[in-house]
Amino acid sequence: MNINKLFRLFVISKLSKANIIRWYSIIKENENLTQSDIKAYQLEKLKALLEYAYENVRYYTNTFDTIGFCPADVNSINDLKTIPILSKAVIRENFADFKSKQLNLINYQKRSTGGTTGIPHKFYSDMNTWALHWALKIRAFEEADFSMGEKMAVLAGASLIPNQKAGLKRQIWNQSIGFVPLSMTSYSDKELLDYYEIIKRKKIRFLRGYPTAILQFAEFLKRSYLKIDMKAVITTAEVLQKEHRVQIEDVFNCKVFDQYGCADAGGHAFECRKHNGLHWAFEASILESETNGTIENGGEAIITGLTNYAMPVIRYKPGDIIIKNKTICSCGKQSEMISEIMGRTTEIIKFFNGRSLAGPAFTLIFRKFNIEQYQLVQNSVSSIDVNIVPKSNFDTKELNKIIEIMKFHCGEEVIVKINKMDSIPLTSSGKFRFIISNLS
User: Fold this and answer.
1) pTM, entire model
2) Number of compact structural domains in the chain
């Protein structure tokens, strides 16, 4: 580890009072582990967490007693499957029962997810887990040839860089890593032009943020006949559509490196320079997937965190649909792979006639029309609202064609309503949702 990196890791470790240096060293050493070594590593961490959860977390004490599960008898990761799957609703309804009885002895923070489903999800995270995830992020940045201290523009809402206007500590943190925050919670062409000028003036060569935020910036640059060449674009926090990857790579003349995170369960995955999918961070959690036969080749992710003792989360379904890849990446790392993140279960719209819609295909459909943005909203099983931001040359023929295509996919009996809008609002965390189902 060079002196510059060591110093910067030391600074952010001191700022956060969390041992990011230690975790960074561990995950770099673990990159050479074989699949059998990885399973052994996870099993050791799993057994320790299960025993702790049984002794210190009321929900798991009661659940394990009810099903007759004994952590001491666990000999394989497959033994997890006897434990009931956990949902966000169960955690919300029993929140006090998920906190460790030893919480007052743990260095922890109370956190919340961005609430892309409309309901922010609260959880406790110990600082050891927080440190691990920052070490994982830094390792992922390095796969894109980023070195700490280089400048990286961050186009996102509040959740990627919280308290952007905070004091000296936050400024030192950003400078130590290299972050240059550029808020995309709300924006206009004037602000996007300002961002372009900042990136050019500061000679920033790396870009990170929500895929839709970066896409909006890319589309602004293209229609304004402006050009920025990047070394890499790093996307996170939303599903990266294949079509959007192509557009972003074309505008910025570089490769996109996608990342996945599930902070409340400890899930993390990153794309390496081979671009064969996303590597699962086995130090942080165990990944399973479950399919009910309705998702072609994919299933819902089930995540068990291995390090968060403030609020252990075991066999948790965050609502993400994934396709697991059984092959080993050509980069040499033998960690488990995700070939594709398809979307969220909340982004599957089902109608009374048995038909259903999912998001990725509509990216290809709507790009053919003269519209800036689109969004599908379902408020009943017999109707669908299509919100669009039309361009000046959008006409009635296109409107009728959209209705025709939607009825083809939804069924003729489904009511399709087109709503022309000046803009489509983002979520409170600055993210954009292509599909919203308001049905429980």
Assistant:
1) 0.80
2) 2
